[in-house]
Amino acid sequence: MAKKTLVSGVKPTGRIHIGNYFGAMRQFVALQDSYHAMIFIADYHALTTERNPKTLREQTIAIAMDYLAIGLNPEKTLLFKQSDVPEVVELAWIFNCITTMPYLSRAHAYKDALAKDKEVNVGLFDYPMLMAADILIQDADAVPVGQDQKQHVEITRDTAEKFNRIYGDMFTLPEHLILSETETVPGIDGKKMSKSYGNIIPLFASDDEIEQSVMSIVTDSKGVGEPKNTEGDTLFSYHRLFSTGELPEIERRYREGGIGYKESKEMLIKNMRAFIAPLRERREDIAKDTARVTAILEKGGERARERARKKMSFIRERVGLS
After folding, report:
1. 147: which strand partners?
2. Cut 0.70: pTM above it
3. Quick check: 22 and 53 in contact, CB under 8 A?
4. DSSP state of 25
5. Burial letters for 197-207: b for 16+ Cβ neighbours within 10 Å, e otherwise?
6. Are 143 and 7 in contact (CB under 8 A)?
7. What is the CATH number of domain 204-283?
8. How far apart are CA 274 and CA 210, in angstroms?
9. Best CATH choice for the domain 4-184+290-319 from the list 2.30.30.240, 3.90.76.10, 3.40.50.620, 3.40.50.10090
10. Rounded to an integer, what distance in angstroms lies between the CA atom of residue 124 and that of residue 86?
11. How far apart are CA 160 and CA 14, in angstroms?
C-alpha cells in the first residue's frame, strides 16, 4: 500500500519556540516513517512581513537547521524552500479567481490584523490561497498543524471542493492532524505562545534563557500551603510537557497544597534544560556545515518542483490555459 502524502511548513520569521515544536513540529518526526513527508520553508509567505533580503536568507537556512536538529531525516522527509516551487504562485492565482473577498475576510489572521488597526497588505489578506496551493499542488492527504492553524486546512478543503465542482475532480481533500493534548501551548504570560506577542520560550534556548523565561511565567498569588488549580495554569501546562516523570507527584502537591510557585519553577527549569540541551547541541553541530544544509534544500526543491510541474500541466489543461 502506497504511503499517504503529508505536507506542512513554517515561515522563516524569528526563532522557533516550544509551541511550534509541541503543537506541530514533533509530528513531522513521528510521522516521517509512515507518510511521504514534505516540509517546506514558507519564504513566499514571509514576504508579507519581512523586508530585509539578508535576514530572510539567513532565517531560511536557520529554520532548515532547526528542522534537521529536531530529527527530520532528509532521506525520509523532503525538506525544501517554498520559493523553489514557483508553480504554487501560479496555482494561487487560479484559486484567487474562484474565491470571493467576503470568504477570505473570515480568515483569522486577517481579522486579527484588523482588530489591531494594522494596515493589511494584499499578501496577508490572500495568503490562505497560497497556502492552499502549497498543500493541494502536492496532493497532500494530511497536514499537521496546531489548533490555531486548523482553519487554514478548512479553507484549503473548501478551495479544493470549489475547484473540483467547477472544473472536475482534480484535488485530494487533505485532513488536519492535531495533537489534542497540546493543541495550543500558552506563552509565559498565559496568552497563546506567539513571536508577535513576545511571550515565547525558544526551542533551542540557552540555560540562562530558560531560567529567565520560566521565572517570568505569570502565576497567581497563592501561597505554598494552598491548593492550586492545574487546569488553566500556565506553569503546570509546561510541566505536562517537560516533567512527565514527576508529573503525578507535582499534580498531587498542586491539588493538596505543599508546593510553591518558586519551587515549581525551579523543577521546571531543571527538566526543561534536560530536554532542550541535546536539541541545542545537535543544532550547533549542524550549523558547522551550512553547505550541507543548502544542498539538502536544493535537492528537496528539485524533487518538490518536479511533482508540482506534473500537477500544474493537468491543472492548466483543465482550466483552459493549455
Report:
1. none
2. yes
3. no
4. I
5. eebbbbbbbee
6. yes
7. 1.10.240.10
8. 11
9. 3.40.50.620
10. 18
11. 31
Q: Where are the domains of the chain?
A: 4-184+290-319, 204-283
Joined together, the cell numbers standing for residue 32 give 516521517
Amino acid at 33: D
Which amino acid type is present at position 279? Answer: L
Cell numbers representing residue 273 in the block = 534544560
Structural element, H or E, at residue 35: strand 35-41
Q: Could you list the pLDDT tens digit for every one of the 322 residues in the chain?
A: 789 999 998 899 888 999 989 887 888 899 999 999 999 999 999 999 999 999 999 999 999 999 999 999 999 999 999 999 999 999 999 999 999 999 999 998 899 888 888 899 999 999 999 999 999 999 999 998 767 778 989 999 999 999 999 999 999 999 998 766 556 789 999 998 988 789 999 999 999 999 999 999 999 999 999 999 999 899 999 999 999 999 999 999 999 999 999 999 999 999 999 999 999 999 999 999 999 999 999 999 999 999 999 999 999 999 999 8
Query: Which long-range contacts does 156-164 make (Cβ < 8 Å, 24+ apart)?
Result: 156/128, 156/131, 156/132, 158/103, 159/95, 159/98, 159/99, 159/129, 159/132, 160/132, 160/136, 162/98, 162/99, 163/94, 163/95, 163/98
For residue 218, the one-letter residue type is V
